[in-house]
Amino acid sequence: MTKFIKFGLPVFVFFFCMLPEAAGKVIRFRHYKFTITLPDRLAEIRDSTGSVHERLFFDTSAGIILMISARQSKFKSVQDYIDCSREGLETQLRNDYEDSTLMLISCNKPQYYPDKTNILHFQVSVLPKGFDTYMIYFIHHRRRDIQIAFTYKKENESICQFYIDDIMKSLRLN
Q: Would you give the DSSP letter of residue 19?
């Protein structure tokens, strides 16, 4: 049995990456003790399932999907379920996401909250509209697991990296 947590990944993305605007809106997850500021252009997609602890956003001009999920944790640290030093991590991801072409680009700690966060960066087989890359921030904070997942096209990687960094440096764990 795997310790890897799957939150579900969006597969219906279809836009191009550009830099975000300076203005933004603060998104608060009070129960999970964090806030994050998103560009105004990042519009929320309302899900019919109405999950309180999962929110989905997209930016039509930037071509990026953002999914934020949070839940109570049974783990003591982010290393308990995303251990970048673990042998066979890429194979485990291929099995968990049922994609034999999945390629792990990197697994590391970000500059913000490195003791609580690991980043998985990987490519998958091409999704609808040519999207093929994920960057997922796994955060363990106050006995809670938070996942912030970005989906975009590999060909727009350099521009999307600036977009993602602008968003992630606004993350505040309370």
A: P
Q: How far apart are the first and last CA of the chain?
A: 32
| pLDDT tens for each residue of 31-71 | 788 999 999 999 998 766 655 578 899 988 888 999 999 88
Q: C-alpha dihedral over 63, 43, 120, 173, to 10 degrees? A: 150
| C-alpha–C-alpha distance, residues 96 and 106, integer Å | 17
Average model confidence (pLDDT) across the chain: 82
**Structural domain count, the chain:** 1
The DSSP-derived string for 27-60 is EEETTTTEEEEEETT-EEEPPTT--TTEEEEEET
Read off the CATH number of the domain in which 66 is found: 3.40.1000.10
